[in-house]
């Protein structure tokens, strides 16, 4: 026993620790919106090219957008689960969008 997990003893332990095939999938990677992308999207709607956005305002706007997108995705996922769909589709987002807009 040398403590090396690549030995045959360690390999048996790894197979025994493998999750069952019916285990739920691992959570998806966290949503990350780049501040640069949010800034560019906002600039598309500024009426004056001289309009400026402070660093703190940009950071807070990016955080709010991340929360909004995450909430919409979770609601669409719940709707897909309720209908028994194997994947979340546009129709699930369309179903939850009116209530989501009223809630925000």
From TrEMBL:
Q: What PANTHER family does the annotation carry?
A: CENTROMERE PROTEIN X
Keyword set for this entry? DNA damage, DNA repair, DNA-binding, Nucleus
State whether keyword Iron applies. no
Top-rank lineage group of the source organism: Eukaryota
Q: Name one GO molecular function term.
A: DNA binding
Q: Name one Pfam family in it.
A: CENP-X
Region listing for Disordered, in residue ranges = 1-28
What GO biological process terms does the UniProt entry carry, in alphabetical order? DNA repair; kinetochore assembly; replication fork processing; resolution of meiotic recombination intermediates
Cellular-component GO terms for this entry = FANCM-MHF complex; Fanconi anaemia nuclear complex
This protein's name: Centromere protein X
The protein's matches in InterPro entries, at most eight in alphabetical order, are given as: CENP-X
Q: How does it assemble?
A: Heterodimer with CENPX, sometimes called MHF; this interaction stabilizes both partners. MHF heterodimers can assemble to form tetrameric structures. MHF also coassemble with CENPT-CENPW heterodimers at centromeres to form the tetrameric CENP-T-W-S-X complex. Forms a discrete complex with FANCM and CENPX, called FANCM-MHF; this interaction, probably mediated by direct binding between CENPS and FANCM, leads to synergistic activation of double-stranded DNA binding and strongly stimulates FANCM-mediated DNA remodeling.
Localization of this protein: Nucleus
Q: Give the species.
A: Amphibalanus amphitrite
The UniProt similarity line reads: Belongs to the CENP-X/MHF2 family.
């Amino acid at each position: 026993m040398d403590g090396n997990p690549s030995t045959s003893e360690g390999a048996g332990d790894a197979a025994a620790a493998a999750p069952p095939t019916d285990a739920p999938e691992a959570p998806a990677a966290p949503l990350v919106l780049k501040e640069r992308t949010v800034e560019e999207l906002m600039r598309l709607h500024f009426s004056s090219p001289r309009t400026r956005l402070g660093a703190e305002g940009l950071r807070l706007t990016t955080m709010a957008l991340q929360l909004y997108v995450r909430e919409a995705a979770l609601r669409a996922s719940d709707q897909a689960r309720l209908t028994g769909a194997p994947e979340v589709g546009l129709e699930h987002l369309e179903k939850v969008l009116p209530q989501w807009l009223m809630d925000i």
